[in-house]
Design goal:
The structure is a homodimer. Chain A is α+β, with helices and mostly antiparallel strands. Chain A has a single domain (21-236), classed as Pnp Oxidase, Chain A. Chain A is built from 5 helices and 10 strands. Chain A has a 6-stranded antiparallel barrel with strand order 2-3-4-7-6-5. The relative contact order of chain A is 0.20. The model of chain A is unreliable at 1-5 (pLDDT under 50). At the A-B interface, strand 2, strand 3, strand 5, strand 6 and helix 3 of A face strand 2, strand 3, strand 5, strand 6 and helix 3 of B. Strand 9 of chain A pairs antiparallel with strand 10 of chain B, so a sheet runs across the interface. Chains A, B: InterPro entries: Pyridox_Oxase-rel (IPR024747), Split_barrel_FMN-bd (IPR012349). Chains A, B: Pfam families: Pyridox_ox_2 (PF12900). Chains A, B: This is Pyridoxamine 5'-phosphate oxidase family protein.
């Protein structure tokens, strides 16, 4: 929303990619494209010195990340006053079997985003976020649903985190042995890994005449999840 | 190794599943089966009050989790003295489109494991761990590789974390609308999500006569990653 193509997140000791720094990227375009291609993230936060790593669904709006949960959840209560957090998204793209142990690896794409997570208290802001929580994944869907009740809105906590720093790290080179090791007589390969959609399973209690809306066409059997989510994101947030 | 089928991890305020507690499991069998079915985890740890959520490959031996990285990495330096950490593994199994926003959900299987991560300093222990880092995924493979050099062993840091507490959380019920909402005229479905193997890509510089070993047969195109990894684990750790 506020970004330009050339914008980047600031780099400091928190988010600088130190190991294999050639794999690090900080520009909004790379970071946001990865964030918009996934539904599942892991959020790290701290309670009384104990780190927690919690999986959750999330989405992005401009340079803000959102996730939600029960108003009763331990994580969300802890974040209500603006706690430091780190939200990470990772795609595993392959397993790499090299000719020595050291060069065994994996292709992957990941983003670590750092900021302070805060509970959304404003009711209008929260209701808008709850719409996007569904519509970011399934464009326009909220308008077709049974409206949320006050009780449901109350029971759902939504967290917003402005991305203060972020880094993307991408490994995509596949098999890469040391040059002298290609003479070593063993087998080596790259095994691609893909996260794909299965055949959608319609509810077996659909009312007569209810059919699958065209807005879900992108969620088709065999499609890569990251592609379907990226496409859905672009429909819901055409400005990026 | 030391477990019995009936063994469970202790439960306290750190790992008790509070939200949707009916989804929580603490027994070794459930926790370990999930841990052994994945390659990628996210580890949460803290440096100077800042939480980090780092993706990495990992494996289990008994009630100990292992992961590795560069000896120069920030995370591993920080963990050398036994830092609290939380290692989480998540499988996303579906997206659930219900008849109201509140019942939109996802099927998933996740484990959060808590402990204190420590660098392995003992050389023999470290060398054994480096063998299992490969062989846990590809049984017997290390014996077929160009042996590791002292330099490579030195450059690789291995972390061990005894699981002090753990919880598994599984949602597998798919679409579940409120009973009265089935009368609401909108479309609803479950979209399965699967992480699968693609067609293995042999190195294009294989020496003449080198063929794919039978031990890799389980890594075949279209196979579920979690099934292939579970099977490989059982070959490398027949005692569980």
């Amino acid at each position: 929303m506020t970004e330009t193509t050339a914008a980047s997140y600031p780099i400091d000791e928190t988010n600088r990619v130190k190991r294999r720094h050639d794999r690090g990227r900080y520009d909004h375009a790379t970071v946001h494209a990865l964030l918009d291609s996934a539904a599942l993230c892991h959020v790290a936060y701290v309670i009384d010195g104990q780190p927690y790593c919690t999986p959750t669904l999330y989405w992005r709006e401009g340079t803000t990340l959102y996730w939600h949960g029960s108003s009763a959840s331990r994580m969300l209560r802890n974040l209500s006053e603006g706690q430091p957090a780190c939200l990470t998204v990772t795609h595993l793209d392959s397993l790499v079997l090299a000719r020595c142990g050291f060069n065994h690896s994996a292709d992957y794409r990941s983003v670590m985003a750092f900021g302070h997570a805060k509970l959304i208290e404003d009711l209008a802001e929260k209701e808008r976020a709850l719409v996007m929580m569904v519509d970011r994944f399934f464009p326009g869907r909220t308008a077709t649903l049974r409206p949320s009740t006050a009780q449901e809105i109350k029971a759902t906590a939504v967290v917003a985190m402005e991305i203060e720093k972020a880094s993307a790290k991408i490994r995509s080179k596949g098999l890469a042995d040391d040059e002298e090791d290609y003479a070593f007589p063993t087998y080596a390969e790259r095994i691609p890994v893909r996260t794909v959609l299965g055949t959608p399973e319609p509810c077996d209690r659909l009312l007569p005449g209810i059919t699958r809306p065209a807005t879900l066409a992108g969620f088709s059997a065999g499609r890569l999840l990251d592609e379907a989510l990226t496409e859905a994101y672009a429909m819901s947030y055409p400005a990026g």
